[in-house]
Amino acid sequence: MAAPLSMKRISETVWEIPRGYKPGMLVPARIYATEKLIGEMDEGVFNQVTNVACLPGIVKYAFCMPDGHWGYGFPIGGVAAMDINEGVISPGGIGFDINCGMRLAVTDLTLEEVRPRLKELVDALFYRIPSGVGSTGFLRLDRKEFREALEEGSRWCLRKGYAWPEDIELTEERGCFEGADASKVSEKAIDRGFDQVGTLGSGNHYCEIQVAKPENVIDEEMARAFGFTLPDQIAIMFHCGSRGFGHQVATDYLQSFLRVMEPKYGIKVLDRELASAPFNSREGQDYFKAMKCAANMAFLNRQVILHRIREVFSTVFRRAPEDLGIRMVYDVTHNTAKVERHVVDGREMELLVHRKGATRAFPPGMKGLPERYMQTGQPVIIGGSMETGSYLLAGLATGKDAFYTTAHGSGRTMSRHHAKRMYRGSKLQHEMEERGIYVRSVTWGGLAEEAGAAYKKIDEVVGATESAGLSKRVVRLIPIGNIKG
Amino acid sequence: MPYRYLDEIATADVAFEATGGNLEEVFTAAAEATLNVMVDEPERIERVMRVAVKLENTDRDMLLYDFLNELVYLKDARKLLLRVENMEIKEGAEGLSLVAELSGEELDPAKHPLGADVKAVTLHMFSLERADSGWKATAVLDI
Lengths: 485, 143
Prior knowledge:
Largest sheet of chain B: 5 strands, antiparallel
Structural class of chain A: alpha+beta
Strand content of chain B: 35-45%
Oligomer: heterodimer
Shape of chain B: globular
Largest sheet of chain A: 8 strands, mixed
Number of domains of chain B: 1
Distance between the termini of chain B: 21 Å
Helix content of chain B: 10-25%
Shape of chain A: globular
Largest interface: A-B, 51 and 37 residues
C-alpha cells in the first residue's frame, strides 16, 4: 500500500495530500475515509486524485469519497469543481457511463406478501428487463424519436405513458438536463443507443428487491418522509446508466478534446484520460450539450425500467401498480458535471461540479430539491453489494465543503478477474438462496465478479460519510431478490 | 493467445497487456483480449459474417485505440462479435493506415457464453510500445 507520506489527517474522516506532493497541483487533494478505508485504498486513488488537482480552474480541493478506488482519469469517487470562467470540463471526470445512477421505489407490500412470490417476481423481472452484452429494449424508437427523447428526458416518458407525474418530480433535475442538444451527438452514438432504452447493461448494474426491517430503520421520522411506513416494507432499487449511447458520446469527445487540448488551448494533463477543454469554449460547450443528452438517455432508461417493474409486480400480484403503491423515492445521478452555485471562502461562485462515481447530496432547504424533500434534505441512495445490503440516506448542511457530495456505492476492493478465480457463480447463487436472496444473472462469471467480498464493507463506507457530515443514514435495506446483467 | 489480464490495475474495470511480433499481431491480440471480456471461448464464434474496417491516424497508439473502439461500436450498433481475419497496417509520411477484414457472427445469448459488456476503451495507461519480441499494448477497458 502506498499512501503518500506527506498525507495529513485533518479530522477523523478527512485526509489531505498537500499541493507540494506533485508538480502542477493547483489545490490540495482531500480524501474522505475512516482509517480502515484509507488503509485499504489502492495507490491508483492517490495518484489519480492528485492528477485531478492539476486541472485548470479547479477550486479548493480535488476530492475522493470513502468508496473511492482506482478508476481511469478521475478515481471512482472523484469530485472536482471548476470555476466556470477559467476552468475546464473533462469527460474523464464524468466517465463513459454518463448519468449512471440509482433509483429507489417503495411499495405497499410487505415481506410476508412477497416472500411466497419471490422467485416468480425475480424470474419475471429477469425476462422483462433485458440485461447483458448487446441487449436491446422493448421500446422501438426510430432515430428521430430517439433524438427528441434525448432532449426531453423523463418528460418524454410522461408523454408516452411510461411515467407518473410524481416520478418526474422525484428525479434529480426533474428527469431532464435542460440545454441538451441532440445536434451535438454523433450518428455513431445514436447507432449504439437508440434500441437500448429499457436495458440494464452488465458489470455492476442490477435491479434488486429489498426489505426495510424495523431494526434497520435508523431515523423513523425521516424514513416516513421518504415513504417507509410499514414494518418489513418492500422496496425496489436499481442501478444503470446511458448504455452504449453515453459511452459513445464520451468516447467521441475524448478524442475531439485530445486533438485541440494542447495545440489550441495549451492545456497539459498527466493522464490522457483527463483530456479537457475550457468550459467556455466551443468544444467544451458542445460536449456539455451532448453529455446532457446522454444524461437524459439514462433518465429515460431508468424511467422505462420502472415502468416495466410496475408491470411485472402488477402481473404477479394481479393488482394495479397504483394499488400496490409502487412509488418513487428518488433517482440520483452518479457520473455528471453540473453548473451549481456554491459559497467558496465566503464568496458565492458558479462552478462546474464534476462527480464521477459520486452522489450529489443537497441539504434541507437547497434550491433544486423537490418540495417534498425541502425539510428532509435530498434522499441519497447508496447501493451495496448484492449480498450485503444498501442504504437510503439524506444530504446534510455539513456537506458544504465537498460541494454537497457523498459516496455512491460500496467501492470495489478486488478486481473482476480475482473475484472470478475466488468464486463460482453457480455455487454463489446456491449459497445466496440459502440465505434468502434469490439472484438471476445472464452469466455465472458476471455473478462471481459481483460477490460481496469483492467490495468494501458498506457499513464502513456509509459510516464514514456520516462521520464526515456528508450524509446521514435513514434506512438500511436488505436484498431478497436480484437480477444482474 | 498473446495477451493477459492485469489484476492490479483499475479495480472495477479490466486491464490487459497484449503482445505481437509486428503491429498487425499486437492489434489482433488486443482485439481478442477485448472480445474475450465480452464472451468466453471466442474461438467458438462462427465466422459467417464479414466486416471491412479502414482507419487512419497519425499515431500508432491512437490507431489501435480507434480500432478497439470500432469493435466496441460494432458490438452495440450491429450486435456483432468479431475476430480479425486479416489485417494490413501501412506507415507512410502522412501517418498510418489500417485495412482489416473482420469475421464473426451476430451475438446470441443462447449460443455464446457472454461475459461483461465493454463500455469503452479508456486512455488511462493506454500504450503501444516496442518490446523485446516486437510490440506490447496496454489498455484499460471500462466495464
